[in-house]
Amino acid sequence: MSGNTEEMLEDYRRRMNLPAAELRKVRDVFLEELHTGLERSGNSSLLMLPTMVDILPDGHEHGEFFSINFGGSTLRLAYVVLGKGHKEVDRIEESEQKIPEELRKRHATELFDFLATELIDFADRIDIPISGRLTIGFCFSFPVQQISINSGRLMTWVKGFECEGAVGQDPTRLLDDAFRRQGVLVSIPAMTNDTVATLAAVRYRDGQDAFIAAVMGTGTNASYVEQIKNLPKYLPQYMPRTSDMCVNTEWPGFFSHSLPILNEDQELDAESDHPGQHCFEKLTAGLYLGEIARRILLRFAKVGCLFGGDVPETLLRQGAVDSSQVGRIHSDDTPDLLKTGAFLEQIVGINPEKNTHTLRTQVKAICDLVANRSAQLMAATVVGLLTHLGRVDTSQPLQKNVLAIDGGILINWPNYRVQMTAAIKEICGQEVYDNLHMKIPAGGAAFGAACIAAAANNYMRSAGHGYRPPARSVSSYFPPRRPSQTF
């Protein structure tokens, strides 16, 4: 590597690769924000939303359910038949497709019509006749102020969506209306986000040791199981059925001066749809990792030390590099870095004679820093949740900790999970690390949403067919997230 490149890389390593002491600072600030966010009038960058999901599946649920998992760039659908035996899954059918980019800016009616139509077409493809009323678990992974287990109010769009006519509305009602426009009657006994659904999927299949779920894909978020006595802002007219409730942290908005924020991050934020918001997500999630890498590569190119003084035209275009390309480079373990070479030739437009091993090594080093920073920050916040739950106290016999995980990055980037677990070990030590188990649930959040619908249905059956989850009008119990001041 040239001297300038090596000096720049060392500078970026110092700023992006956090030692254990710095990661503990991030964990500690996250804990402070978490505790403040749990308070009714807390002024926190974490919304800490009660989800009204106070019953998670235990493997005894049964019935026939559809599910819709919508929360990013991909729509995932499932048809699930749970048998009467313990953890018995008689049938599961799945489908996924990209959400058309143009729907991100269209009216909400068009977006929800798309969701309903896709489920109807999916049922037709798997030869499930639509007769009577369909029961659907709805996984809706955007900030929702939950009123009951199956209703709430959309607080804001994130992840590049800006559909008019949805903010302030009940997503369950919007979906029900869309099916009615198609002439199909549905029952939606549960609406939740993908983290709670991921937790439910692991609970159904693998038992009750999972208390935290984290998703890292296009966006990122985490939920965990909290004692209701620690939730002064849960809806007081909602009559809980157990002593616990899932809490949606909404950690995309987590902000701290301890976070390793670069000039490139600040530039990305300034040009984003929501400047000054969703700081943690913009540092870590798939929607942004490719763009962060592009901006760093561009900076290296402009000072003349990466591409021999040339600035590839591709790197001047916003969005020209996506996270999947960063992931391929991050996982490039071939001796000649062939995946990285393919990226440089096919995406960046580097001539084969200039596509040297040295250049590939430099580019991989940059992409590794972008991915590893995300993994380290993910580790710090997960440890924050474990610490809050009292599950890292080595003075007591340590319990088995199951972390339910999902999302394209956690599933498809093996080196990302290696970095994340290594950071957890650095922060907590060997004992806690040895008792931590990551579970990727079969069927993912779509299966979990069906399981939550099944658990809600089972409870309603046992309580009588006239049961409706208690609700009340939304008021000021959930304060607005504190905006980032300097991001």
Looking at this protein, list some descriptive labels:
487 residues; alpha/beta; Nucleotidyltransferase, domain 5; six-stranded mixed β-sheet; five-stranded mixed β-sheet; 15 helices; 13 strands; disordered C terminus
Structural commentary:
- By secondary structure, the chain is an alpha/beta fold.
- The protein has a domain at 49-207 and 442-459: Nucleotidyltransferase, domain 5 (2-Layer Sandwich), CATH 3.30.420.40.
- It has helices spanning 3-16, 20-38, 108-125, 171-181, 194-206, 263-270, 279-284, 286-302, 323-330, 338-348, 357-388, 408-412, 414-428, 430-434, 444-463; strands at residues 49-50, 63-70, 74-82, 89-98, 133-140, 144-148, 151-154, 185-192, 210-216, 220-227, 244-248, 401-406, 436-439.
- The strands form 3 sheets. A 6-stranded mixed beta sheet has the order 1-11-10-9-12-13. The protein has a 5-stranded mixed beta sheet with strand order 4-3-2-5-8.
- A hairpin with a 6-residue loop joins strand 3 and strand 4 (89-98).
- Helix 8 crosses helix 9 (323-330).
- The relative contact order is 0.18.
- Mean pLDDT is 90; it is low at 465-485.
Report strand order across the widest sheet: 1-11-10-9-12-13
* Residues in helices, as a percent range: 40-55%
Quick one: biggest sheet?
Answer: 6 strands, mixed
Helical/strand content category: alpha/beta
CATH architectural group of the domain at 49-207 and 442-459:
2-Layer Sandwich
Count of individual beta strands = 13
Low-pLDDT runs: 465-485
Q: Compute the gyration radius: what is it?
A: 23 Å
Within CATH, the superfamily of the domain at 49-207 and 442-459 carries the name ATPase, nucleotide binding domain
Share in β-strands: 15-25%
How many angstroms separate the termini?
A: 32 Å
CATH class of the domain at 49-207 and 442-459: Alpha Beta
Shape: globular
CATH topology of the domain at 49-207 and 442-459, by name, is Nucleotidyltransferase, domain 5
Order of helices and strands: HHEEEEHEEEHEHEEEHHHHHHEHHHEH
Provide the residue-averaged pLDDT.
90
Question: Number of helix segments?
Answer: 15
Pathway: Carbohydrate metabolism; hexose metabolism; Carbohydrate degradation; glycolysis; D-glyceraldehyde 3-phosphate and glycerone phosphate from D-glucose: step 1/4
Keywords: ATP-binding, Glycolysis, Kinase, Nucleotide-binding, Transferase
GO molecular function: ATP binding; D-glucose binding; fructokinase activity; glucokinase activity
Domain Hexokinase N-terminal: 9-204
